[in-house]
Amino acid sequence: MTEFKADLHCHTTMSDGSATPEEIIQIAKNEGLSGLSITDHDSVDAYSIVLDLAKKNGIEMITGVEFSAIQGDVTVHVLGYAFSHENPIIQAFCQKHHQRRAKRNRAILEKLEQHGMPVSEEEILDNSQGPKKTIGRPHIALAMIKKGYIKSIYDAFNKFLGEGKKCYASGESFTVEETIDIIHQANGLAIIAHPHLLRNRPILDQLLAMPFDGLEGYYANFTPEKNKRWLRFAEKKGWLVTGGSDFHGSVKPQIKLGASTVSKEIFDVLQGHYRLNTNA
Ligand code: AMP
Ligand code: ZN
Ligand code: FE
Ligand code: FE
Question: Is 68:42 a contact under the CB 8 Å cutoff?
Answer without folding.
Answer: yes
